[in-house]
Design a protein that fits this description.
Bound molecules: carboxymethyl coenzyme *A
Strand order of the largest sheet: 1-2-3
Number of strands: 6
Shape: globular
Mean pLDDT: 96
Oligomer: single chain
Strand content: 5-15%
Structural class: mainly alpha
């Protein structure tokens, strides 16, 4: 963080003395006004519900230019990473700041692969859930429970503990998601296999059974790996901010990540992929492309409570670059699986076409986000709709844990503690 030459001055209409604040520059992006001394010097707080204009931390992991529709992990554009790397390379990059060289890659892949198995006792814990529990309910519980099963890596002041808990989380998330899936189906749980890739192993744990050999389909493997890359990290979004806030109390990393999983579940955030697919299916069942115009009228009517799921974003005021890549992947997967005429894909393309020409969406700068096409790809692969957000959580785990580690490694970090504008009763007697 570098001081800018300029300062910000806050003046008041009632003649109170004005106050000066330092301004800092990042490497790229908007400058920030440092208001930490505001309360001490004026007795006032700032008011910014929803954090519309508040930088909650300093971070060197991800940069988004929402106006241009650009996303970079550690400085590398998402398009280049999606084209040239696999998910574990991207995990290494997000965690460590640089892409791995040949040896680092081999070592990291080995380390993650050899941490994919989970403590056997976790199966007993899993069996406490109802069979029809939502996978995100199971995942929130399982990730939180990791703090009980892996309490030998919960000393957050020890960098080695932090490193190993990060590896455990990245490695075990696919196993936990597949466990939740198999439990719902009532099929035997599949143990991980060390001769498969991270994504191939996940596919086998999801779709294999002990009765048959499972052959990983390379197109499906590559598509799912790309989904993981596109969801890996997204700076201070709601779930990441939740992980940071939860972790700022000094709680262990598994508890902090469980809070991120819980936050991601909501339909305004990661739950949008499930909500988007449900929306497309419902629309398809009620007239499909023919009824798009009618549906769009509902979306634009504020009283209907209907939103076009998979559209709009707090930061992107342009096409979400992840949505572009996801649309490409969608086409590739559908073609490879002989599903070129998938009616939901056609419907999604038509919704997008109409929305991008409609003044309601144009004026509000609402574009497709990552969730608009991801559900169609996942459905084509065979992933059940309620599991979509769990896939997002699996991929985002590396982002959450890297952001958490960045915070804990900073010697100046403080517990997060926002203030409020109190509008309740003044003091009164019973
Ligand atoms: N459909 C219809 N209208 C919308 C939509 C939408 N999907 N998104 C925003 N708007 C309207 C909204 O009604 C408001 O209009 P007005 O200014 O007239 O009141 C305006 O656009 C601004 O919306 P907002 O809700 O104030 O914006 P926000 O930054 O608080 O919310 C959002 C961002 C993503 C929650 C919102 O766009 C949304 O609910 N989208 C649908 C859910 C979704 O797809 N979420 C996934 C986000 S990307 C994946 C992730 O990172 O989690």
């Amino acid at each position: 963080m570098q001081l800018s030459d300029k300062k910000a001055t806050l003046s008041f209409s009632d003649g109170s003395p004005s106050v000066e604040f330092p301004v800092y520059k990042g490497t790229v992006g908007p400058e920030v006004i440092d208001i930490r001394k505001l309360y001490g010097s004026t007795g006032m707080f700032t008011y910014d519900p929803g954090f519309m204009a508040t930088a909650s931390c300093e971070s060197a992991i991800t940069y988004i230019d929402g106006d241009q529709g650009k996303l970079m992990y550690r400085g590398y554009p998402i398009e280049q990473l999606a084209q040239n790397c696999n998910f574990l390379d991207v995990c290494y990059l997000i965690l460590n700041g640089e892409l791995p060289d040949e040896k680092q890659k081999t070592d990291f892949d080995w380390l993650v692969t050899h941490h994919t198995m989970v403590q056997e006792q976790m199966q007993t814990f899993l069996h406490g859930f109802r069979r029809d529990a939502h996978p995100m309910a199971i995942l929130t519980g399982l990730v939180g429970a990791m703090s009980a099963f892996y309490h030998d890596s919960t000393d957050i002041t020890n960098p080695e503990h932090r490193r190993i808990s990060a590896i455990r989380l990245i490695a075990k998330m696919p196993t936990l998601v597949a466990m939740a899936h198999k439990y719902t189906l009532g099929q035997p749980l599949m143990y991980p296999r060390n001769d498969l890739s991270y994504t191939g192993n996940f596919l086998r744990m999801m779709f294999g059974t002990p009765c048959d050999d499972y052959q990983v389909n390379e197109v499906v493997e590559r598509a799912l790996d790309r989904i993981f890359i596109l969801h890996a990290e997204h700076e201070q979004n709601a779930s990441t901010s939740t992980v940071r806030l939860c972790g700022s109390s000094g709680t262990n990393p598994f508890a902090a990540i469980a809070s991120g999983v819980a936050c991601l579940w909501g339909p305004a955030h990661g739950g949008a992929n499930e909500a988007c697919l449900n929306m497309l299916e419902e629309l398809q069942a009620n007239g499909g492309v023919e009824k798009v115009g009618e549906f769009m009228e509902k979306v634009k009517d504020k009283n209907s409570g209907v939103r076009l799921m998979g559209f709009g974003h707090r930061v992107y005021k342009n096409y979400d670059p992840r949505a572009k890549l996801m649309q490409e992947t969608c086409k590739e997967v559908l073609a490879a699986l002989g599903l070129e005429n998938d009616p939901l894909f056609k419907l999604a393309m038509e919704l997008e076409r109409i929305a991008l020409e409609d003044p309601y969406f144009v004026e509000r700068k609402l574009y497709p986000n990552v969730d608009f096409y991801s559900g169609i790809v996942q459905r084509a692969i065979g992933i059940p709709t309620p599991l979509f957000t769990a896939i997002f959580a699996l991929a985002r785990t590396v982002g959450w844990i890297s952001q958490w580690d960045e915070m804990i490694s900073d010697p100046g970090y403080k517990i997060g503690r926002p203030r409020q504008l109190y509008t309740g009763e003044t003091e009164r007697n019973i």
